[in-house]
Design goal:
The protein has 379 residues and is α+β, with helices and mostly antiparallel strands. Helix content is 27%, strand content 26%. It is built from nine helices and 15 strands. Helix 8 links the parallel strand 12 and strand 13.
């Protein structure tokens, strides 16, 4: 079963629209009826129950054959919680560590801040989505905040309609809607990223990026830069860090060290996708200059400065007496516009000067994505 298009919810709302507002009770009745009819049309559906729990009405399907119990719909009027979060109960909810290689949380269909309780309101939710760590996660949290704030000003209706694609109780998609007066806002979010949840012919890279955390975006940017240097600079990679690995002595290794035209060159890779500058160019047509971290202590040097680089090259070359530095560059990778650009760096880690113009890196990013997925099964 595939997720509903947002237009389907708007069609239901159109049947309930009056002169000044949408009839919230009628909207809830029609949505419950349509979700029930859809579920009953499945070969295995189980017994369906409708009941109230806290500020919401739940449509719940009990176990049938090998299918898990599952909440089919949660819809209600957000309200402020009247008790503290029951963390002991929540910790007792069984939870797999990962689904499709990604960490999960004990999510709430109706958020706790909107009065959501436990039991049928708890489900296995992708952690990046639940905590707002990804592009989709930010949109998900915005809708939750909209529902809570709208309830303070005027009565609003919030619903979450999960879509299941197999016998498990882990939704593949979540349609989240907020109804205020004559306005209905609906967005569908992906909750699973395993192969079974991705339709044939879909753009796997675009799907992965929408659900990626900053760390995953950084991993993809570094791998993209390495492939780009090999293809366009004929570079030979010497070392490459793993941004997902723990730091030693609180220090992250250099992102890339490569040989270009016979010269050893150190690279720092700065990747944009979630930030406000992602997808933008300067007036001169360059990617925005990456921001280098200032030193924790002056003697450590600014990121990409010669002292900073020398301290991280000890495993590659002798940086003792007689070491006079190496060429250092910064690579900006913009995964929103799929552009890449190099910058030269002064000995003190500034200023950054563009080297050439931004270059399309779509193919390199797709190769990098495939390499990472082949290695660990997911981005």
């Amino acid at each position: 079963m595939r997720e509903w298009n947002p237009g389907r919810y708007h069609d239901i709302a159109a049947q309930c629209r009056g002169d000044e507002t949408i009839d919230r009770e009628l909207f809830a009745q029609l949505l419950i009826a349509e979700v029930t009819e859809q579920h009953q049309s499945l070969p295995v559906c189980g017994r369906i129950q409708e009941f109230e729990h806290g500020p919401a009405t739940y449509l719940f399907a009990e176990r049938s054959d090998d299918h898990d119990d599952r909440t089919l719909l949660a819809i209600g009027t957000p309200e402020r919680p009247d008790s503290e979060r029951e963390s002991v109960y929540q910790r007792g909810f069984p939870l797999p560590d990962v689904v499709g290689g990604r960490p999960t949380d004990r999510g709430h269909f109706i958020p706790y801040t909107a009065g959501g309780l436990f039991g049928p309101n708890i489900f296995r939710q992708d952690r990046a989505l639940n905590r707002g760590w990804s592009q989709e996660g930010r949109g998900y949290r915005r809708l939750e905040r909209l529902a809570v704030s709208a309830a303070v000003v005027t009565r609003a209706t919030m619903f979450v309609h999960p879509t299941y694609i197999d016998a498990s109780d882990v939704p593949a998609f979540l349609a989240v809607g907020v109804l205020r007066g004559r306005d209905l806002t609906v967005q569908v979010f992906r909750n699973r990223f395993d192969a079974d949840s991705i339709a044939p012919g879909s753009d796997h890279l675009a799907i992965a990026l929408a659900g990626a955390t900053d760390s995953q975006v950084g991993d993809l940017g570094e791998e993209t830069a390495a492939i780009y240097l090999g293809e366009y600079e004929d570079a030979t990679n010497v070392t490459m860090s793993d941004s997902g690995m723990p730091r030693q002595d609180g220090r992250q290794d250099l992102d890339l060290v490569a040989v270009i035209d016979g010269e050893l060159t150190a690279f720092e890779v700065k990747t944009q996708f979630l930030g406000r500058r992602a997808g933008t160019l300067t007036r001169a047509g360059n990617l925005p200059r990456p921001r280098m971290r200032p030193p924790a202590k002056p003697e450590h040097g600014r990121q990409a400065s010669q002292p900073y680089v020398a301290a991280r090259l000890v495993g590659v070359i002798d940086t003792g007496d007689g070491f006079d530095g190496i060429d250092v560059r910064v690579i900006a990778v913009d995964l929103k516009s799929m552009l890449i650009q190099q910058f030269s760096v002064g000995d003190d880690g500034r200023p950054l000067t563009p080297i050439g113009k931004p270059t399309d890196c779509t193919n390199a990013a797709r190769q990098a994505f495939n390499i990472i997925v082949d290695h660990r099964g997911h981005l």
